[in-house]
Amino acid sequence: MSTRPRGDKVPPRWHRRADARPDELLSAALEVFGERGFAGARLEDVAQRAGVTKGTIYLYFDSKETLFREVVRAGVGAAVASGEQFVRDYQGPTAELLATFMRRLWEAMRDPANARLARLASSELGSFPDLLRMYMDEVVLRTRRSISAIVERGVTRGEFRAVSPVLAGRMVQALCVHVAQAQGFIGAFDRDKASDEQVVDAVVDLVMHGVLATPIADKCPRTHIIKSPRRRRQ
């Protein structure tokens, strides 16, 4: 039996957990943006998903644009910052650093929340230049510069061939991101089935054989041979 005195009302959700309110709003906004896109998302939808009133959102975010920026910064932006710190702190061989960073990038892009934001950025933010510029500056370019810094480190130490760090950063990022997206979007319908582990191993192996000063088999992670299904003769 409840011991609550008669006439007492259950406190609203946003009164009970005021300290968690911003995080709840960001989580709700991520879901709504992912489902409806930026243009189709409404603050009313975010408020309903978070269990608050629309006015509550304005206590923390002054517009839908500001809310979207903070969603990016709290999610994929935090992963980017973690990657930057990882590169700064790493003390081992550069080949291991690059391989590990690529795997971290792969895992980040296979995260459903990050994948939704990346898909939204590529398909819709062209209509919102300020938001696209923010996503480019705070996610795409920072990640690319981390890769370029790794390549420059390897070239300087004689571990990598004399390749352009800037161009290598662009190519490695594009390869990891787009292959990860393809694995997530169409992997279930691909007749030549390959697991995430198989695909990322192959990507790392391909890049390593392109940048190492002296490509040696045991410097590269073991890859899995993926055989295409035999075609029946007509």
Describe this structure in words.
The chain has 234 residues and is an all-alpha fold. The chain has two domains: 22-71, Arc Repressor Mutant, subunit A; 75-211, Tetracycline Repressor, domain 2 (Orthogonal Bundle), CATH 1.10.357. It has eleven helices and no strands. It has helices at residues 13-16, 21-40, 43-50, 54-58, 64-74, 76-89, 94-110, 112-123, 129-156, 165-186, 196-211. Helix 7 packs antiparallel against helix 9 (129-156), helix 7 (94-110) packs parallel to helix 10 (165-186) and helix 9 crosses helix 10. The longest helix has 28 residues, at 129-156. It is elongated and about 60 Å long. It starts with 12 loop residues before the first helix and ends in a 23-residue tail after the last helix.
Q: What's a quick, concise take on this entry?
A:
With 234 residues, the protein is mostly helical. It has eleven helices and no strands.
Regions with pLDDT < 50 over 5+ consecutive residues? 1-16, 218-234
Identify the CATH class of the largest domain.
Answer: Mainly Alpha
Q: What general outline do the C-alpha atoms trace?
A: elongated
The string of secondary-structure elements, in order, is: HHHHHHHHHHH
- Per CATH, the architecture of the largest domain is Orthogonal Bundle
CATH superfamily of the largest domain, by name, is: Tetracycline Repressor, domain 2
Structural class designation: mainly alpha
Radius of gyration: 23 Å
Give the strand content. under 5%
Number of domains: 2
CATH names the topology of the largest domain as Tetracycline Repressor, domain 2
| Number of contiguous helices | 11
Count of β-strands: 0
